[in-house]
Every structure is written in structure tokens, then in C-alpha cells.
## 1
Amino acid sequence: MESALIRRLLTAGAVLAALVLGWDLANGNYVLLALVGALAALLVAHWLTDLASDVFLGGLILFGYLVGNRGFAQLQVPGVPLLPAEAVLGVGVCLAVWRAARTKTLPIKRDALNFTLLAWIAVGLARLPYDFRTYGFLAVRDFASVYYAFFFFLAQGWAAAPRNRGWLERCLTAGLALTVPTFAAFDRWPLFFLSLTVAGSPLIYVKSDVAGGFMAAGVFWFGWRFLRDHLWPWLALVAVCAVGVVICNSRASLFALGVGVVGLLFLREWRFFKLLLAFAAVGGLFLLGEMAWPRPPGESSQALRLYESVRSIADFSGSQTPTSADLGDKPDNNRFRIVWWQTVLTDTWDHGRWLGLGFGYDLADQFVRTYYADSDEDFTTRSPHNFLITIFARMGLVGLAVFGAVMAVMIHRTWRAAMVVRNTGGSAPWLFSWMILITACFGVVLEGPMGAVIFWTMLGLANARFREQLAEGGEAAAALQPAEQANEMAVAP
């Protein structure tokens, strides 16, 4: 009797839900339909993969941001103002709270990186209520640069299970492998990709500064895999990513890759350094041959383009004029950043040096009046193209100092990872994160989900792997102690 009653109740509920969904669909309301469809898809995905919903979604958005970039970041169901990052973050936080209540353990680990990152988030949260009263939803929008850091804690928890970590790393690998081909195709046929829309937004829209950071990160990601597995396809992907950094017209990614290669020297990752040095030598020979190749009048060689791109990084006065066609805007681009940085730094120092100007404050207002004094164009960018300056402007010296502590811990852990796993690219997951952070100091990268989700997730995975390496090293040392004690007793008189 009880089972029959349950079946009838379930049937009645299904019929009622179908009627409500049908009514909403007929009236053009897709909110409930989207929620039910998403729930059904997650149940099917869990049944097929045996992965938790947040882990499965986390892997999907990693792939989506790597390939779709800015286009994927703007996707949303009509009538549902929820973007992919925020949707997965909401699901992940809810499930993390539920797991913490069930297992009586927090998703926060007792180490310096967790504590300093929590302190940085706390500084931002402390001033958010005041900023929300002043600026409304704009404060929440700007606070995204802070709340995306919750992906660090989610990824750290996801990585505890080998199956989950394997899924996330496979999604990262697949996305990184397609980053360069997607960028090249988008650069060649932009109108085609802009026509591939979902609910009015292009599915793939590539920003060169964000994609360039991914390519630089891919060099270390695939190089680490080659040193670990000795499989030639990984080596080919290292070459693809390195070529992508050169051709993507992003000087920030070139600079980041150079810092990473020099970093390998300080980390004493000799095998990794020699591998990239060999690639640089082969690339140099190719560029020399390309210079001698006949070309139409007025067309610059790739070697000249690379030289002028690197030289323009230090052209602060804008006095040098590149001859390469796609580098003509670089002097003005340098001046654009320098003027904006100086304006924001001066404004913040004068009016909010300790706690910042707040989330929601228009950091572009004074800059636009200075740099575009005679222009009537609508300027919508809110970040001064430097994540550290953005932190100072929003959270003052207090927030910048705490984030400086986060970076100091990252430097220490990058060093320790290289020492724990000698000459096998153990620092590569950390260098992956550094590539994105360095590019974020010259562009709008970590203020949006395209770069922030990848950065914070990878940082969480790197920290989880580092903790495992330390634990394995401690266990190995403990296992050796009885044998060492036995040897000492044997030789004792």
C-alpha cells in the first residue's frame, strides 16, 4: 500500500511539473525549464562518469574558458542572469558546505597559502557592504575579482580524489591543446566564429592577452608531462604553445614566458631549462631562415616582428615606431597603460591609500577625462589593465599587502615543489599559475572569469599536489628510519 501511494504521488508530481513547464515554455519563460534540464543533465553525467556534479561542471568550464574564451564567458540562458563561472561557483559552494557538514571537515587546509588567501578575501568582504550601499550592483560586479578566488578552495577539495583530479587535468590538457588552433582559426576567420551564437552571444570569442597567457602556461604544462611520461606528443604540444606565444600579438605572454624560463634557472630545473633552450635554438634557426625567404614588398619577417614586439615592451616614451603592420599601435598602447596606471595610483594615494577607493568606484573616470579629453566615445572598461594596481585601487595598501603575502607564499611553494621533485618539472603547476598572474599585470585577465577561473583552479590543484608530495616525502623518510636504525645497531660495538 505504501509503495503504491508513493508511486501515485510521484506520478502526480511529474504531471504537475510537466504542466508547469509547458505553461512556462508557452509563455516564453525558460528559467524553470533551464533548471530542470540542467538537473537532469547533471544526473545523467553523474551516472555516466561517477563524478560529483560540481567536479563535472568544473572540468567543463575549464575547457570552455580555454577554448571559448570571452565568448564562453558571456553565455547564459535567456531570462537567467547567471554566467558559467557564477553558476558553477554557486553549485560548488553549496556542495562544499554540505560535504563539510556531513564529514565534519572544512574545505580549508592548514597551510600558509590557505590562510593568506582567506585573509585577502576577508579584507575584500569587510568593505563590500559599505560599497554595495554606495554603488549598488557595480560593487558586486567589481568584487568578482575577489570572489573568483573561492575556486582555489573548491579545486583543492576536488583534487583530494584521484578520479576528480584526473578529470580536471584532462579537461585542462584538452583545452590547452586547442587554445592555439582556436586562436589561429579565430584570427583568420573572425566573422565565421562571430556567427556561431548561443542566445545571441558568440560561443567563441578570443582575447589575445588572455589566450596568450594560456599559451605560455601550456608550454610548462606540456613540458612537465613530457619530462614525466617521455611521450613525443607532449613535446609537439610544447612547440605549438611556444609558437602560439610568438604569433598571438600579446607582449605580456612573451614577457611571462621569458620570466618562466629564467625562473627555471633559479629553481635549478636543469632538464626543463635545457628542453626549452633547445626549442629556442630551433626556433631561432627557423626565424633566420624565414628572414632570408622572399616576401612581398612591405611585408615584415616574423623575426623582425618578434624583435620589435620585444623591444616595444620597454618603450615607455612611445618614441619608437614599429615597421610591422600589426605592431603600429604598440607605442600608444604603452602610453595608454602608463597614463592610466599613474592616474589610478595618484587618485588612490590621495583619497584611499589604506583601504582603497572601493568596489564599484569608477577607476576610469579621471583617466578618460585626461586621456580622451576630446572624445565622445563610450568607454566601458573598468580595470586599469594591471591586477596589482586594481587591488590597490579597490582595497588599498592593506589589501595589496595581504595579496603580496599570497604571492610570497606562491614563490616559496614554487621553490619547494622544485626541490621536492628534482629535475622532473615539479614546479610546472606553479609556473602555470605564474604565467597567468604575470600576464594579468598587463591586461584585463583576473578581473574576468576567463583567466580567473583557470588561475585559481590551477593554483588549488597545485597546492593539493604539493601537499601530497610533502606527505609522500614524509612517509618515505619514516619508512627509511627503521632500516637506518637497524644499520646503526649492526655497526655499533
## 2
Amino acid sequence: MNGVSRGPESIGSLLQRAHPELLVSKYKRKQAEGIHLVRQRREQGNQLLGFNSRPFVLCGLPLRRPPKDQLLYERRNGSFVLQVTGHPEFGLPFGQDRLVPIFLATMSVRQQSRVIRFKSASVMLDMFGMANGGKEYRRLVAAFERIFGATMFFGTDPAATARVVHRARFNFLSEATIWYQRESGGENVVTLSQEFFSEVMAHPIPADLEAVKVLVASPGALDLFLWLSYRCFTAKCRES
């Protein structure tokens, strides 16, 4: 039209124009492939297990970034209570920051050590199927800063008729030397606080890492999956 000829329209363009609801995004395809892999490995009894710590299964971190002036977060689940105090400079952990405790707990259980060693920061990104790009590395740096600076209080609330009162206040880490570059040549060393390490060793909660990969971009769905995994792990009989 108007004297301008157009080449043949691609099938993808025709489909997008006529039936956009039939198109599947790259992200959705990746999710579907991940779900298939989870089911396949579960049927084969060949799951790749990671671990989480009990406080963050029973009472998750904030799903979204809290306001900058909010440095205290509290979450309750029955008789359990979790309080997180953020660092004045870095703020409260939130969203995908919850992957850091999973990574730390998993590496600690695998290495059976309070001192965790790994070759590069990409080990964590690979564990959760995340891209090894600059954006993800910057996000990882910020997540570790918020986690390192946060103080946790976890315990049972006597007002909730808890049979046993247990309370602990701790930081995640006591020391960390992390090279965030892909090829740094330096070893990454993270030392867990004694309290966090003891909690992980006493109550390591298993989780399917392939399923975690599928849910990595949906913190709320990930929390629900981890809680259901915990309930199945601790169940003594069939529950409705």
C-alpha cells in the first residue's frame, strides 16, 4: 500500500496478530520444562536436594521491599514468631534475598561445616538456575549485604499457649569474603554464626532444588512450597 511492498509475514507474526493467547513466552517454556524435570526426577527417586532453616520456613521474610524507614519486620505462625532487624544502611532482607539462607543452609549441610567454601559467586546463581549476568550479580551483592547486616530473633510466644518456650537471637554470618566477579581467582569463604549453624544442623529442612528453581521468581509461591515440604517432612501420619 502507498507504493510500498512488504515481504511475506512470518508464521509467528501472523499467530501473534490473530491469536496472541496461543503464544508461550520463553519464561513460561522454561517453567514448563522445569516442572517436567521435577516430576521426572521425583518419579525416578533422583531428586536434587537443598536445605533450608526452620525459622524461614515457618515464618518467611518480606515478599516485597519494605519502606526505607522500616527496619523491623515481624511474622507469626501459630506459637512461633520471627523478628528481623535490618541494617540502617542496607535495610531489611526481602523477596529473592530468601535464596541466600537456602544457599547457606544447603552448602553448610553438604560440607558439614560452619565455614562454607565455594569457588565463585556463580555457584549460587547456578544452584537456582539464575542468569550469570551483571544484573544478577549486583542483586546478589545487595542480598548478601542485607542478610549480613540483619539480626534475627526466633522463638515461641508464651501468650500463644506454647508448651515449650524457646528463643534465640542471631545474625546469619559472622564473617564473609566473597568475590562477586565471575573469574576472580579468589576463594569465597563464608562463616555462619554459631547460632545459625546450630539451628541448621539441628533442623535441616529438605527441599527439591529443581522445584525451587521453578519458583525462584515467585517468593510467595516459594514460601508455600517450602512450608508444604516442611509439613511433609515432619508429618508422622496422613494429614488432611
## 3
Amino acid sequence: MTESGPGPGQEPTRREFFRRFAGDLVASAAQLSKVVGELRDESAAEARSLLADGGLLPITDASTVPAAPPSATSAATSEAPAPGEARPATGFRTPFRMLDDDTLLLIDQRRLPDVLVEVPVKNAAETAAAIRDMVVRGAPAIGQVAAIGLALSARSMRLAQPYARRAVLETGAEVLRGARPTAINLGGAVDRLMARSASFGELSEDGAGFAAALWDEAMAIVAEATDAGGRMAELGLELLPRPAGRPLEILTHCNTGPLAAGQFGTALGVVQAAHFAERPIHVWVDETRPYLQGARLTTWELAQAGVDHTLLPDGAAASLLAAGRVDAILVGADRVAANGDTGNKVGTYPLAVLAARHGVPFYVVAPTSSIDQGTPDGSAIPIEERSADEVVTVRGIRIAPAGTKVFNPAFDVTPAELVTAIVTERGILRPPYREAIAAAMAGSEASARSPRPREA
């Protein structure tokens, strides 16, 4: 794969598009409808551009990142490496891009940091398998990828009979929803495409128009996720302490950068914003057992971006906090309940307890697409349990006797009272969270494009 990143002298302009909408005021229902329609069309066009150019990360210092990846057109030429070919693991970019009109390429995150390999998917079933098998992971990223996968199924069935097309879409939607149940972004993206399907007319004879409508909806989801990442990075940066005479010390858990979320990342997007603002910063990276997302992925992303960091065993975080060597903890979220309870990668809850014990702020950085008002509290968040192999083996090497019983929940739930603030693209939410979340989620899909969000 060609190494990625803005080339010398390249000025990222992606956020100018979003900022133009951020200042729009909606005065009437008619205007609201017009703005939403324009936003969907413009967002779809912007997302196509993001996917075609490999999704460069605009808040990374260009001097630290190599040249841009091939476009969707050049990727198909004889000079470009074929999907599935292993290449040196360099470059810092979104985890997915389009190869052509019918193929989505996913970075195989199971192979990082050793090699960079892209896996092609062409429909919802293949996309669901890639999500389930952790080729792609991270709640915002799998929501975007699920939307594209379902849209690709619609495109592949554009010449089929309406009843057959509907059956394929409904089956694909169900398979995608079940791929990883904890992350609400996945189900939300699928539901959104199926709602667009119903509004267009599931049995419409216009298969090409139907496929185009679902594709535009998927592209809007990608573009909106990019906008959300940029807004969260900016808002989160305002929260970070400013220690005098030394770098800011941040502790992270799991992986929350572009690999997990798209163009910016969530918690790691805030770190990138601080780095881009030339604020001295050092990141403590939990290894994140058992899947080692911190060790394999977060350290890789930080190294690509030139951010100073140190890897530590999960169990060492307590001593680090007790020694006063952490200024703030930043984590993402796979699902936030209506009361602010947060489901995130297993190991997050004990960090929140430790943060409270030692007076360290604990910030959750998550888009509103990760908030589920239909889940009243953390007890109702479904917790995915994964294979025992992830615990008894490390990268194929067995570390426990055969037959050892294993409990392997992929997530845990952090009670809302342990969360200092929740950073969303619609504002910084503070306790009481039920009221703050309800206020942030109120209104139409256009409310996220209202003037710059303030604390709620």
C-alpha cells in the first residue's frame, strides 16, 4: 500500500465544508426540510471524496506523515498493490476506502502492527463477517462500514425483482445487527438505511434509484461521523488541563483513533488535536487485554502521528495514578445509556474507579450516534462475550492449559457517577446526565449543524 497522509504543502480543507453548515440557522419547518435535504446531498458528495482519497487525517502535522494513498481510481491500476497483499504497516488514515463502485476495502486490524493488509467486501454478509471477526472494529467505524455494506447489497441487487431485493436487504440488515451487539452505532446505521429504504419504496421498480438512495444515506453517515469527530476533538481539547513546565499526561484505554472511528477518532482525536495545537503531550497507553488494541493499534497510530507515548500493562495503571502521573483519562464508548452509564472496552470501569479514588478527571468522548436513549441504564446494555481463544492464546501462542475455563466479556459498564463529562459533537455533557443527554439528543438530525455547541 502506498503510504498515506497529506503531502508537503497540502492544506486540509475537509472541515470547511462542515463549518459552512455549522453556522446555518433554521427558522422554519420548510427551511429545515430544505437544509436537511441539502445536507444529505452535500454530505454524500463529501463522503465520496473522503473514501476516494483514503480518508486523510486533517489534524495530523503533515511533516510527520508520508504521502497520500492511491485514489479509488488509481488503486485499480497495475501499479497499485492488490487487496490482500501485505505491505509495511506505515501510514495514518481511515480504516476503509472504496476500491471501485462495488468494492469496499477494509484494513485488516488483526494484522497490525506487523503488516498493512486490506480485505475487500462487496455486500452486507461479507461486511458482517468482517465486523464479527474484528477485521474492522470500533463503534463509529463499524457503523459507517455497516451502512456501506448494506448499500453495496442494494447496488448489487439493482437489477433484481423488487421482492428479491427486499429479501436480500432484510436478511443483510439482520446479519449486520447481530455481528456485534454492544455497539449501538452499528444497529443505528442499519436502521437508518432501512428507514430510507422504506421511504423510497421497498418494492419500487426503480432498482437503480433505490440503490442510489441507500448509497447517499450511507455516504451521509460517513460524512456526519467525520464532522462529529472534528467537533469532539475541538471540544475535548478545551477540557484538557494545562500543566506548567511539563507535558500533559493522558491515559487511554483500547483504541479510539481513526482506525476505530474514521477520519478523526474519538478520545484519540482529542489527543491529536492537542498535538496539532503544539501542546506538549505524553500518552500512557493501556495494552487492553485480551485483544491488545492499545498495544497493537493505539501505539501504532500515535507513532505514525509523532505523538510521544508509553505502553503499560493494564494492571500498572493503578500505580501510575497513585503516583500522580496522570492528568486526565480519555476513553471512547460503544454505547451510552440514557442515564450516562457507559459501555466500553472491558477494563474501562476499573480505570474510572481508580480515577475517582485519585481525583483524576475521567472523560468519555463519544458521538451522539453512540447514545442509546432506548437503554435506560447500564444494566440494559448487552455485553458481548467473545471466544476463549482470545484469552488463552496471544497471537496464536497458547498461554494457558488446554481446557481452561474462560470468561471473556468484551465490554464493561462504567456508572455515570464516575464520569466527569461526556464529550459529544453537540456539546460537553455534565451531570445530571439524563437531562443533559435528553437535551443534546432533542430536535432533528439538523440540530447537529446548529451554531457551535456549548456545554449542556
## 4
Amino acid sequence: MRVLAINPNSTVSMTDGIVRAARAAAAPDVIVEGLTNTGAPPAIQGEADGRAATPGVIAACRTAAHGGYDAAIIACFDDTGLAQARAAASIPVIGIGQAAFLAAMLHGGRFSVITTLPVSVPVIESNIIAYGLSSACASVRASGLPVLALEDDPDTARATLLDCARDAATEDGAAALVLGCAGMAPFSPAMHGASGLPAIDGVAAAVGLARTALKAS
């Protein structure tokens, strides 16, 4: 199986990190390749960035469908352009946000989302409502970290995310954490350790869901 992991922003180093996380989670029969949305903003932080990135995401999903890929993953937690891309492509298109929510629900109880900046919270909350998962979400927490700070200052990012993970565990009564940005994947083990809760990385969840969708068809 060939899966194209699409980074909706234009930061190539983030694409590289997404592909590493996806390959680490992939079964042996899954080949993961990456694509950067070069005409998009360098990070997707809020609705305006998402709108700017959507045309490129749709085009990338069409390219994947015509290029021999079996599935495409939209690797932005906002699920940028997901509905439009699914309508435009003839292959399964998986959003890492939706995949992470579904994976978190398998742990029972409610989940808490830890994302980047406050501007991202309304988009995530709207997606959760649209997916019919409001009753399963305990909170959407903004860490205050810009997306690119996850790479540029990993020590500060790690400390901040661990604090958020502990707060979610003690204050929300959550059964699982959802990492609300593709760039948070490297911090998943530490967030699990700090909170005692499963820390769901959407990239890994999307790879597993894509394989399941293909095996079931």
C-alpha cells in the first residue's frame, strides 16, 4: 500500500517530521511518502491559514489519486480541506484530527485535546461538533506554543506540553489525551508519562485508519 502524507503548510522540515512519525507507525506493508503544500503559509494557525492552504491540499489529494497512491493523509490537526478533498479524490482521505478523536474514544471515557495557540481552538471545536463528538470531548486546551516552536525550541515545548498534559489529567477527568498538532508527535511518550494517560498522535492514528480502510474495502 502506498500512502501520501500531505503537509498542508509550506515548512519542509515539518513534512520530514510527519513522514518519520507516519513511517514509525506504519505496518510493514505500508509505504509512506510525503508532500509539502509549497504555496501555503508556513504554519496553519487558525481559520485564515486553513483557507489559504485548502486549494493546495485539494490539488495534492487529486495528485495522490492519479499518482498510484492508495490513500492520502491530511497532516494538519485542523483537518484542513478534508471534506472538499474527499469529494475531489477517488481514494480514502484521512484527516489526522478526526483519526485522533476516533482513536482516543477507543480508550473509553472522554478525551482532552492539547493544541498550539488559542486561535486554533475554535476550528478544532467546530470540527468536533461537526463529527458528532461533542459529548466525548472534555476540553480543548491551548498550550500557547506556536506551531513552529515545536521544532525551533523543543525543550520549552516539551516542558509546556507536559504541564498541559498533567493539567488535563487532574482537571478534566479525561481518559485520553489528543495531541492537537502534527508537530507534537515526538512528545507523545513524555506526555503519556507525565499524565498517566494514553497520548494519541493523529499522524500515527491516521496511518492505522488508512490501512484499515483499505483492508476493509
